[in-house]
Amino acid sequence: MELTVSDLTVARGGVPILAGVQFVLAPGRALVLRGPNGSGKTTLLRTVAGLQPAMAGTVAGAEERIAYAAHADGLKAALTVAENLAFWASVFGGASIEPALDAFDLRALAGRRAGHLSAGQKRRLGLARLMVTGREIWVLDEPTVSLDVASVAMFADAVRGHLAGGGMALIATHIDLGLEADVLDVTPFRALAWDVAGSDEAFL
Amino acid sequence: MSLWEYANPVKFLSLSERALPWLWGGAALCLVIGLGWGFFLTPDDFRQGSTVKIIYLHVPAAFLAINAWFMMLVASLIWIIRRHHVSALAARAAAPVGVVMTLIALVTGAIWGQPMWGTWWAWDPRLTSFLILFLFYLGYVALWEAIEDPDSAADLTSILCLVGTVFAVLSRYAVNFWNQGLHQGASLSLDKEENVADVFYQPLLVSIGGFVLLFLALVLYRTGTEIRVRRTRALIAREERASGLSPEVRDA
Amino acid sequence: MRALLIRDLRLALRAGGGFGLGLAFFLIVVVLVPFSVGPSSELLSRIAAGVLWLGALLACLLSLDRLLAVDWEDGALDLLATSPLPLEGVVAVKAVAHWITTGLPLVLAAPVLGVLLNLPGPGYGPLVISLALGTPALSMIGAFGAALTVGIKRGGLLLSLLVLPLYVPTLIFGAEVARRGAQGLDTSTPMLLLAGITCAVLALMPFAAAAVLRVNLR
Prior knowledge:
The complex is a heterotrimer of chains A (204), B (252) and C (218). Chain A is α/β, with parallel strands linked by helices and 204 residues long.
């Protein structure tokens, strides 16, 4: 089933940022969101992931199917790499962590505490978490921050594998991942003053 | 024409602007009559002497301290269920007034208690309940102040108000269980036998009326201020978006 | 949910201080009380039950601001909110983990510290039972407070201000059980009321806590 976003208005702090966002994400496809800093990509992704209510419009086909990854990886410094992954695996229904360890080249680090990893290694662990969730739609906010070139390629391979298996990916990023993906520039959806009512507009 | 029309901030403002002069005037009139009558024209109590006259401040303040919280509870429920901004702002506006009323009730109670019971403070159930109510008010006000986003603040304080009400009632019974008190029974109950004598009762009712009008005036006035603050915010946001400047760019 | 509980307990063990901090604070309070009120054993045995309850309550309060804030800061709360676990369950499990790491050690340490304060002989049983019944409510109410203040920088003081009045009924009934027990009186009425409060809190508070957490996450 595809992910359908129609006429979506997203707001931060009661102020609408993007309005009338439309797209359809089909199984096996990836969509890359582009736009300058502060254009509302993060807010859009959080809304699609259900962390934030939409101001208007609908997101269909997202229920219980989304694995979300943002700037913060939710890693516990005191747990080992394997323990971190195993925790998320069991929260999401107990998938094996082995493929994820291999895909992100973490096997050698499996017994190391997450607190002792470098920034790039932590990021890889954060992304490896996506594979153990078993969810079909990956919603990724700047996934390549602090990754080196080799790791970016590793990540792109993981996404490709996910898509090949019928998964979907919605990615906000500035760099070219070398993926076969549709691109959506969010700039035209900027909420303008006159066509959308923010929550404060009730006071005018 | 439904009552909910006044949930529109603009309508509410125009109504409150028309009502406010009457409320201020009525409050002043009732307070002058009630307090003047009570202080100068009633006889001294045969046991308590003239100290009894503090009742005209103490009872109305205590009455409002509780009812202001009750009003906040109703306003919070309206916000949670119907999401009318005015309702949330009215709850916010009422809270500091409630704090002051609770404080007045506590302080006048202490001043009254000193000659009567020989102590400024006793851990009597009623006194203790008011002290706990005071803490609830402080927490509520502090939470409003601490959260930047106004809609989130309204949501969080509304839920705090609901949960707080349950715990305040629970505390009231717990405190009763914990200590039997010195405080006299209710001054105003429907049971005539328990009430204070008629000579004191009539001016008391007038001053309670004055306090209620004063409370309404203060809440309407403060709600108006809150609405104007939000209006200003909305205008600034509109201005900025019209000039193509998003809030993030401004923050950075 | 079991995975979350195990993870939280493991973190508390590894990070150090998880189990120890509240307990150390409890010990300090109990040791400082005789210095402040005087060493008279008659006075101490009279106030012992109340002091132990108050110390346990404050020790519980001390660790509340980390209850959800850690997961909030590192983004784990966002990820948990998008996971199959209901947020109500997440908050409840967090409260349970808090109780196991803070409340349970306090319950176990209380009789030992009771000796220091000359708690009368018949008071030990009711003290331990009342703490065992009451501290879960303290953790759950605390989780609600933590959920309310999770997005606020330096919210620790605000958290105390919000939570302390909510603790009043639990403290009154809990300390009443311990006090009556120490005097050799019948404790059944306050005990039942305490148990009732704890049951109600455990049943209803997760919903309130999850509701405010959802507001704070958006």
